[in-house]
Amino acid sequence: VQLQASGGGLVQAGGSLRLSCAASGRTFSSRRMGWFRQAPGKEREFVSSISWNGGSTNYADSVKGRFTISRDNAKNTMYLQMNSLKPEDTAVYYCAVRSVSGMTYEYWGQGTQVTVSS
Questions:
Q1: Residue 89: per-residue pLDDT
Q2: Contacts (Cβ under 8 Å, ≥6 apart) of 3
Q3: 10 Å Cβ neighbour count for 75?
């Protein structure tokens, strides 16, 4: 089982990036998935999550109205569209799959770096 996050990079404040998280080895179409991020010197924090069919989404207050999470189960891929990026969005972004019990995130990707310059 592997989660491959991609799409990170360097962007100016106000710009946009689209992150992708491709799953291989098995399908996660029945599982909730999420994005997290970790900035230097800080703990990892929740960014957004999406239900198995995309019908339910959650966002951290800090990204509401700027980020949009989505998924394509046919492609076994989840996305995070990030608009109006701010320097404080700079972090390594990780994708993850919720466990069957829903109590924790069971599988994690390797992370992709997002750097927003002011």
A1: 98
A2: 21, 22, 23, 95, 96, 97, 107, 108, 109, 110
A3: 11
Please give the order of strands across the beta sheet that includes 17-24.
2-6, 17-24, 77-82, 67-72
HSE-CB of 14 using CA atoms within 13 angstroms: 1
The single residue listed with the structure tokens 């919720």 is 98
Is residue 95 a contact partner of residue 114, using CB atoms and an 8 Å limit? no
Q: How far apart are CA 6 and CA 4, in angstroms?
A: 6
Kindly state the tokens that stand for 55: 């019908």
pLDDT digits (tens, 9 = 90+) for 58-109: 999 999 999 999 999 999 999 999 999 999 999 999 999 998 887 899 999 9
Q: What are phi and psi of 88, to 5 degrees?
A: -75, -5
CB 37 within 8 A of CB 92: yes
Could you identify the residue written with the tokens 């900035």? Answer: 39
